[in-house]
Amino acid sequence: xxxxxxxxxxxxxxxxxxxxxxxxxxxxxxxxxxxxxxxxxxxxxxxxxxxxxxxxxxxxxxxxxxxxxxxxxxxxxxxxxxxxxxxxxxxxxxxxxxxxxxxxxxxxxxxxxxxxxxxxxxxxxxxxxxxxxxxxxxxxxxxxxxxxxxxxxxxxxxxxxxxxxxxxxxxxxxxxxxxxxxxxxxxxxxxxxxxxxxxxxxxxxxxxxxxxxxxxxxxxxxxxxxxxxxxxxxxxxxxxxxxxxxxxxxxxxxxxxxxxxxxxxxxxxxxxxxxxxxxxxxxxxxxxxxxxxxxxxxxxxxxxxxxxxxxxxxxxxxxxxxxxxxxxxxxxxxxxxxxx
Amino acid sequence: xxxxxxxxxxxxxxxxxxxxxxxxxxxxxxxxxxxxxxxxxxxxxxxxxxxxxxxxxxxxxxxxxxxxxxxxxxxxxxxxxxxxxxxxxxxxxxxxxxxxxxxxxxxxxxxxxxxxxxxxxxxxxxxxxxxxxxxxxxxxxxxxxxxxxxxxxxxxxxxxxxxxxxxxxxxxxxxxxxxxxxxxxxxxxxxxxxxxxxxxxxxxxxxxxxxxxxxxxxxxxxxxxxxxxxxxxxxxxxxxxxxxxxxxxxxxxxxxxxxxxxxxxxxxxxxxxxxxxxxxxxxxxxxxxxxxxxxxxxxxxxxxxxxxxxxxxxxxxxxxxxxxxxxxxxxxxxxxxxxx
Amino acid sequence: xxxxxxxxxxxxxxxxxxxxxxxxxxxxxxxxxxxxxxxxxxxxxxxxxxxxxxxxxxxxxxxxxxxxxxxxxxxxxxxxxxxxxxxxxxxxxxxxxxxxxxxxxxxxxxxxxxxxxxxxxxxxxxxxxxxxxxxxxxxxxxxxxxxxxxxxxxxxxxxxxxxxxxxxxxxxxxxxxxxxxxxxxxxxxxxxxxxxxxxxxxxxxxxxxxxxxxxxxxxxxxxxxxxxxxxxxxxxxxxxxxxxxxxxxxxxxxxxxxxxxxxxxxxxxxxxxxxxxxxxxxxxxxxxxxxxxxxxxxxxxxxxxxxxxxxxxxxxxxxxxxxxxxxxxxxxxxxxxxxx
Amino acid sequence: xxxxxxxxxxxxxxxxxxxxxxxxxxxxxxxxxxxxxxxxxxxxxxxxxxxxxxxxxxxxxxxxxxxxxxxxxxxxxxxxxxxxxxxxxxxxxxxxxxxxxxxxxxxxxxxxxxxxxxxxxxxxxxxxxxxxxxxxxxxxxxxxxxxxxxxxxxxxxxxxxxxxxxxxxxxxxxxxxxxxxxxxxxxxxxxxxxxxxxxxxxxxxxxxxxxxxxxxxxxxxxxxxxxxxxxxxxxxxxxxxxxxxxxxxxxxxxxxxxxxxxxxxxxxxxxxxxxxxxxxxxxxxxxxxxxxxxxxxxxxxxxxxxxxxxxxxxxxxxxxxxxxxxxxxxxxxxxxxxxx
Lengths: 340, 340, 340, 340
Description:
The structure is a homotetramer of 340-residue chains. Chain A is of the alpha/beta class and 340 residues long. Chain A is built from 13 helices and 15 strands. Chain A has helices at residues 13-23, 38-46, 56-61, 74-86, 101-114, 128-138, 160-164, 169-172, 174-185, 202-206, 277-280, 282-298, 306-325; strands at 4-9, 28-34, 52-53, 67-70, 90-93, 118-120, 145-153, 189-197, 212-219, 224-230, 238-245, 248-252, 261-264, 267-270, 329-330. A seven-stranded mixed beta sheet of chain A has the order 12-11-7-10-9-8-15. Chain A has a six-stranded parallel beta sheet with strand order 3-2-1-4-5-6, with helices on both faces. A two-stranded antiparallel ribbon of chain A has the order 13-14. In chain A, strand 5 (90-93), helix 5 and strand 6 (118-120) form a beta-alpha-beta unit. The first copy, chain A, is globular, with a radius of gyration of 20 Å.
């Protein structure tokens, strides 16, 4: 089978993960990478990548490149995706495509017009725990879903400098949960009510953001979901989901470091959850990029497309509006005129 | 030590539990009971109660009675409690005192004026799981509480005839969770946002009620709670709580029938939660009534008083209003003029 | 239905439990008790027992007594059971009947001749965890049993003075596990290999006993069991069983104080097992005595009879012999001539 | 850092795993492989191995080879290891070196004389669950170890043809547990008592082997271990360990497929253990070979050496003798004259 030829743009933490995973896949070949930092390029060379270029434009100019992996800073995503589409390259882009709804819709139009594939990096969809929960739901074992509960807590807040340009908790962190809410029961969200607070770090509040939230989602068929978020869980990364339905309930739980149980006079003690996303989703990242490779080799639809990104963004924007106005906000209120 | 002399009014399911528990307590004596059904009176006689009377008024007329246990239908609670207070009897009354805020406030005024003790039957406060969680929170082991999550699902919906006069899901079922939300972190609720749906039985909807709900509470200090409810969990009574704070998180889980784990080719299987409140809270009912007896013998404050009932009712009324108007409602909006 | 009239001999810790439980049973009546200590007799009077007598003989002389509960010191059991049988009283006797095999066989002959019922207090058979495991095994859900694993560890060693007259670890403590091994799979033991050591307290070794043991049992059909014992588990009473069979495996686990899970930076922490037998088997004691009452009122066989006691004793004696001679010992080697 | 140059002999299931893992290690290079099957050689070529040779001798003749990985059939291990040692190559050899004690001792003498490193493939030592348990024990958190319990059950018996040449259950399967017993508490075994039965498949019995066993080990300091084995667990690979000590107890449990819990009317259901050693020990195989590479690059001792293999073999031979003679057997009885 023909190998797909990839170029990777951006070799930060997540770019390196995608690069390493691609290098292990029999039907993928990484023909070039770009990154402004020489050490990152050297990293790629050490892994056996022969061509390292200085600019994204040079990558796109390589005729042998079939697809680009965009792991550059968020504010370049829309532009780079658009350029790639126009260059006829398939695109895997880290989320979000952009924080501006109009911009995203423009990019999607270009992608559609150029007929390339665009996949967005909602990595949690590829996590075995969530996939298992989704499959149990889909199999009908819990009957009709009535309630979805998503817990998503980070082990620690990012720097305030990051938070300032992140789009805020809902577009930076909860957006994964909004996507999960749609994915896990395959329903569309109609209304959002968001409640948030600054309980961890006042500096986050001063930067105009919140660090703790409870968001209620109502699906178009009246079923409901609730998400709880915190930027800082003392015990590590907390990623759980529960779906309750007419015939039962299914939970996906955290992956712990190990299974040990220590019994002593103080109680029974066990290991913590895997510390953060790099550990918890290590396998999910592999599966994600493998699924992208497979979609290209088989010319099938990608598992997470631009529409998925658009919907999550709409929910996120609705959540922001809900928080500011302290009222439930319909997704239909969020359109191209909305500026937040 | 002097025994407290009790009279029990109403020998339905819950009245019999209180009677049985009182009969086992060294400092309590049941001197009389009343119930309209002869079989119930016979039950009491079989347990060794010597005096059974036809009316509540006859109970109150007995000079030796120190305290009454009111387990009669909800619409008699306010009136019976008032009469008991005027007769100088201490009162243990099943919740709610009344569904009308004005009426409750009137009763509490009478109780205060007559100086008798009034305890309300929020039995879950006496459950060992919730007490343990509360104690862990109170000890500071999770730091400052940020988020409270309460799951409360019944194994099956009551008859629609019951639902019609119940005050609705929020005043009948969620009111326990509103009390739990206040109890578990010792904070007052300031605002409520309630979302509900009819997902189990259309007849419930036709009766003007909902069967599934997600309720977000905001405490006065900005911390938040979320409650999820269902009238019908296929796997039985689901009663869990989770408190997340700055230094950690603590969960109280369901009590299962037993600890067995069966491993076979299909998976690992274990027992269901205890089926319903009679099983799950059997010990809590004992502790509850014991605490009432103790408060009387030691002349201390009762652990759940009229004010607790009033606050839960206010939250419940706010939740109803929130559901109807689809907006967050402040508790301060709920005053004596509100009629729902 | 006619009430069975009981007399309780011995009001130590376990005697009081049986007394309290009998007093709550509708078909049982405690007509008299005896104990050498006045405070114990007063305890019984406080519970409403009207007749307290000075000697066991006086108890037996009461014509209205249908059955005696023997909770006196072990060295009186055989004699008291024999006397009761001759007086035509049914007998519930705490284990063991005697440590001497001949003596036990003599008593059983007397009991058989007098046609009274004799039940032995192997309380663990009535524990809900073990009953559940047994029922799963019996239902065929694990297929043919191949391996039985019993863990039985006490939270602390008794005083050496007690150990000296206890018959040793195997007859005092493991004998419950020998009975469990027979009960859980309804098979008879054919051979025993016992390995023991003094790892907790040298004083136990000086008293001629061991404090830690692993005992392998072979059933007559070739299936096997293994028991591990310790006199001192730092984390409390450890009482587990596991049965492995051709179609699966089933485990019964410890009952914990509560279900709480505390997550903090050090790990996930939960409650300890219930501390000791009084806590773990509180409900089992009730069921046990209820089953005895039921056997008498319905004139059915008792659930644990003299033969069960005899078999456990034989296994215990074989274990002692095995330990001393460091070789597997057949149960058939243990007969009336054996003196240990 | 200089890369170590490896040759892999034997590309069966386990050989391929080692090859794949070596190819991902920065300090390892696979310069050649051998296998009698062309498809296996092609597999290696597809992974990028440039040199494939027809015989083991050709491998050894390559001067650039630093170390060989021996994954050929068991009956070649001793000979191949000896040849490698004489050729001055370091050796990683799958267990067992040989089933004959004399032969093993001869090989070890050759290895010692030639001063090459020899590591044996006791892969379970590198499993994160067992390492964690060992570390907890080593840290003193459970005090002095008193009892070790090892459960080791395969998901299905191998073909009888395999069993016939395997050396029997104790040398083929339990030998891993004997090594674990030594590893987990760092104590030497002094005595073995083995009990076994044919409960799964009569054909295994006809082949002169057993399929189910309980083995009691006594360490030189009097502490004890017990191992239970079955060739066929309906629920998959069961690999657990428990160490009980003076201050507490620690357990290592099975790794499950996922964390999902399905609650329905029949109970609470979860996933099975990972199916067999390839799944359970996937990471352990990586760590194992990485540790071998590290020992070579740093010129340190290997973590599992020839002496470890010798001791496990001695325990296994003692277990066989114990089973046949139905008596405890001292390890000291097992010397070069023993033929089983």
